[in-house]
């Protein structure tokens, strides 16, 4: 019975972290779908968001909601600048150039963050109640529950946005085919910019949520790397895939950390998602919901 | 571009590497310079203020690895974000073979290359079904998995404390100085450069380029795409493994910290800044990426004497400068330094006619 509760606890924590991965993966998939750009700087966007929110609250003594909103505004401006200055000139370039340009961007963001805020870990002021709650035998910190709830709320908001709003429909159309969308009178350039904005917003939210659990420092950007297994599992160009992939990776990561750590001497959590990633790529290269590229001669 | 007044009458002449006497003379002078550089390094050091021979050795090591990545990415069109880890595999393999198994360096070196080639080919297996983005991510996974193994497989790799390595000896001469090791490294640099230069003239090399340009057409023409993709991973990892082994026996200590994703990014940056798919590209890129930190150190020194606090900030901004340079190169000079060099050279050749 003890074993079972341990298992359940790992699952619940995994779900909470996984839901944040889902959010970040959503941003990733959005950019990829709209503009076929793979964004290696997703983790850095997340880190920047967390830092901006943290310093707005701690240094400028804003209430949480004001800091949160200002962070969103900042993320949008940052995303627009990135899209306009760095990605727009790269349209039509080969994949490797686009990958490298986002890696370059991630280096720039990371160095700015460590120059401005230093590298030591900083703790978020408590936003969610910290007191642990008990479900039967399991003790779960409330932060996990709030994180899960907040991510789910954001995911639902974005699902509704894509389903019903004009802009969301335009974004889906662009993702389907740039040329057709263009001929239907949708400004594809604008959609590219907006998808970067949305990606930056969801990343910043993810950063604030994860920062609440683990504290904020430069290693927070590693969360961006965890997103790769999540999106590959779900399929690079599938929004439901991103959500599901994020949850699955979060759970698997936590389970492998809980059960395998004493066999491999710690740190399994860091590498397990990538092992999963390689296995997925071998078995089902386009993920659960990804579009299979059929190539025939 | 062919020079005016040169007419090839045989295929052999057309395929020659050094086509004109002018180039032959230049290359001979260049080789003489390479050979005497260790002896003239000391006066240069005193002028520049750093150990140029050490930098030259690092450049040599990186050139070998960059040639390797260039074969994979520049010629075959497969992106690898795992070459930093593959270099680590070479370094660890050589360290383990010499220190644990007691093999001499000259046997351990090619074996390290082969072991890296096998590891590279295993992680290259997804390339049979994947390309572009998916492959980049698969190789990134390889990077993290290998890094984890280097850190946590303590019985084999010594864990986070790393391993110490001995200098190799050559017929009784211990190659433990910058100067003697320089010749060892540059022997392999010349081998690797000749190999890379020649590979495009062979059947596999042509197949690589065909796969890069359009893999479906290559398949129609009878190229075994799967075989050559894996082969390209093997050749490329072999070279980067050799460079890792050379690095290990030069620095004399192997630890997982040196082979992080940052090194993979640096390798990619080398071939992008240098010029993908050019032999000269890897060389220019390796030189550029090794000298750039040294150049960035100059303003840093100047500033720290005036404002001591700025040092910490500048230190972290240095990575950012790398990022900015990568971005600027990709936007303004996507074909790299090698292409820029061709443009400049052709400008002078064609002058006063611009076409």
Describe the structure.
The complex is a heterodimer of chains A (297) and B (355). Chain A is mainly α and 297 residues long. In chain A, 74% of the residues lie in helices and 3% in strands. In chain A, strand 1 and strand 2 form a beta hairpin. In chain A, helix 2 runs antiparallel to helix 3, helix 3 crosses helix 8 and helix 5 packs across helix 6. Chain A is globular. The mean pLDDT of chain A is 85. The radius of gyration of chain B is 21 Å and the shape is globular. Chain B has 15 helices and four strands. Chain B has a two-stranded antiparallel ribbon with strand order 1-4. In chain B, strands 2-3 form a two-stranded antiparallel sheet. Chain B is mainly alpha-helical and 355 residues long. In chain B, helix 3 packs antiparallel against helix 11, helix 9 packs across helix 11 and helix 13 runs antiparallel to helix 14. The model of chain B has no long low-confidence stretch (mean pLDDT 86). In chain B, a hairpin with a 2-residue loop joins strand 2 and strand 3. Classes of the chains: A mainly alpha (297), B mainly alpha (355). At the A-B interface, helix 4, helix 9 and helix 11 of A face helix 6, helix 10, helix 12 and helix 14 of B.
